[in-house]
Design a protein that fits this description.
The chain is mainly beta. The protein contains 4 helices and 15 strands. The chain is elongated and about 65 Å long.
Length: about 250
């Protein structure tokens, strides 16, 4: 499933007269970007977010690893518009990338897949020239993630899970500009929500999960602050690694 983005042009500025004001009004943040090697130009399926093959192909492989925007893994799945600043080479709308990995560079906020990095260029020739730089000055801003087809948040039982002793959940397709900051499962015998551990990236886990069908909820942070959202579906008592459950929740 690929991401579908709509261009968000924002305010039209007269850059010759008010360049500083235009940058401020667009809410872009200055930074730098580079790229990593990939034989096919796609993302890294072993990325620190735990996305696996999804992390390789989402948004047609236009993905990035981040450091300052990592947020202890809560930044996984976030979407950004990134544009570079070399007029003769850089596309004015920039590249849309999805965070699928952690990576540290030389004062860089984005370490992009080759496909992501090449999207910074105006055309193929410009992208080839940008690749020679290795690192370029950029500006970026967070943008909403929009998915084609089903826009619901999905919970995938991670392949490392072992029923009934260990349950790990991977969170997918978080829309809007939300971050998932915590997850809990319902403990029926004690009538309380039990916190899960963020194992790494977008993966949350718990030893000795409740028997039977499992109710789950996740905490999201956004413009309205922190809020708990309960899945409208339960994790089946017969859960197994690789199973995907639709929460029937959309975060726009």
């Amino acid at each position: 499933m690929e991401l579908n983005f709509k261009h968000q042009l924002g305010l039209v500025c007269v850059t010759l007269l008010l360049p500083a004001m235009c940058t401020s009004l667009d809410n872009f943040t200055p930074s730098r970007a580079t790229y990593y090697g990939s034989p096919d130009g796609y993302g890294n399926p072993r990325g620190a977010c735990g996305f696996g093959y999804y992390g390789k192909t989402v948004n047609d492989g236009r993905v990035a690893g981040v450091s300052g925007l990592w947020k202890n893994g809560a930044g996984c799945g976030a979407c950004y518009r990134v544009r570079c600043k070399i007029p003769q080479y850089c596309d004015e709308y920039g590249a849309y990338v999805v965070v699928t990995d952690y990576g540290e560079g030389d004062r860089t906020d984005f370490i992009m897949s080759p496909r992501g990095y090449s999207s910074l260029g105006r055309n193929d020739d410009a992208s080839a020239e940008l690749s020679k730089y290795g690192v370029v000055d950029v500006e970026y801003k967070r943008v909403p993630c929009k998915y084609g087809g089903n826009n619901n948040v999905l919970l995938k039982v991670h392949e490392s899970s072992k029923n009934p002793y260990y349950l790990a959940i991977l969170v997918l397709y978080v829309g809007g500009t939300y971050d998932v900051t915590a997850m809990e499962l319902w403990q029926e015998d004690s009538k309380e929500w039990r916190p899960m551990r963020r194992a790494y990236g977008a993966v949350f886990d718990a030893a000795n999960p409740p028997r039977g069908d499992i109710k789950m909820r996740f905490q999201v942070s956004g413009s309205a602050g922190l809020n708990w959202v309960e899945s409208k579906n339960v994790i089946s008592s017969k859960w197994k690694g690789g199973a995907v459950y639709d929460t029937q929740i959309q975060l726009d």
